[in-house]
Amino acid sequence: MLVSNVFVLDGGPGDRFVIDCGHRLERRTLLAGLRNLGFSPRDLTGVLLTHHHSDHAGNAGFLRSEFGIPVFAHEADAAVLEGKTAAPAMVSRTGDPFARLFVAIENRTATRVIVDRALVGGETVGSLEVHHAPGHTRGSLLFRHAGTRSLLSGDALLAAVPPLTIVQKMCLPHPDYAVSLEQAVGSLRAFCRTGLPFEHLLAGHGRPIVGGARAQTEALLASHSRARDA
Length: 230
Known about the structure:
Number of domains: 1
Number of helices: 7
CATH class: Alpha Beta
CATH architecture: 4-Layer Sandwich
């Protein structure tokens, strides 16, 4: 995908999920990608959303209404997606002109979809563990696939530097897009303290980081702490 990454988990019937589904302007790209993998959308068990932003949840309503695919999201972001709670307005804090533009677009974009299963964190969906990691949004989720030692992080942890995501490296969420950067950092620290292993990072933006992802995450968090305390 051009705007954000979409991942497909194929664990067999009953365990075939799309993790995030891209911006609505990329609908054809999404459908073509599924075809290239040999899937019809109707083969999918569900759409798992890491958070409610339009570049990650933009095609959820289409997939649900057109193909009957159930949608899963954290209960806090489900309330936003269903229009029961207003999305927190993004605020441009850094002065970056590209970030300011993207903030303005997101603040005017309402992604709407009925959420079939509201998650809270601590459960499993298929072969994925669900971990609540608030900060980027109130309902941001991490999905860990123990079998492949992979972490799907949405925008709670990135593999390219926002806002343009041209530079490929692990980084924290952009403060302009986060409800609270410090809460996001705290969520990542709490997840790392669980000791759950992961070697590979599949983030919402940037190329997959294959190998050493947990060590890189801990180094990034330590660097952030040193910079904050300096």
